[in-house]
Amino acid sequence: MPTRLPSLARPDPTTTAPADAPPLSLEERLALVNAAMTARLDEAAVAYEVNTAHIDTKPVDLADIVTGPIDTSPAKAPDLYPTPVAAVLQRAHRRLVSGGWCANALVDADGARCMLGAVRIEARGDRRLEGDAASVLLDAIRRQFGDHVDSVPSFNDAHGTAAVPLRMVDQAADLADARGL
After folding, report:
1. Mean confidence (pLDDT) of the chain
2. Is the pLDDT of residue 157 over 80?
């Protein structure tokens, strides 16, 4: 007697499938997410309490921490170089960074300065110090770009952006410091 295989046809359902629920509104979905997140945060808070229960801590008095308004003005950068020529070149570099760089003028209409203009203002009227700083600056430029550079102003004016002139003033400050000037 042959064995009967079960029928592959689906039996007719005796009940109808429930109708699809209407989609949730945005407020309902947000409420569900809020409830889920609240449950997760509560669980994390309990886990934190359990994990840190053994740590002995003292309460913090906020009066020890919050002392009042603080000075939020930019801090004056310290002079890194103790020698006068290196310090002038470092201040000139800072002035060019903060006040702007220009070409074809010692100072332009906006107050930006060229390399020599920055050295001159930072030498504060000391012509010898200004000359020494300009000389070291020219030496640094010639080390990098060769002896064909005639002067600091001609080098400054040959550039369209501040990147190279600023880098050379910074390198000149390092060179002056290494020379003890």
Report:
1. 83
2. yes
For the chain, give every domain's residue range: 84-179
What are the pLDDT digits (tens) for 99-116?
A: 888 888 888 888 889 999
Phi/psi at 174 (5° precision): -65, -40
Contact 136, 175 (CB under 8 A): yes
| Cα separation, 101 vs 113, whole angstroms | 5
CA distance 86 to 93: 11
pLDDT at 34: 95
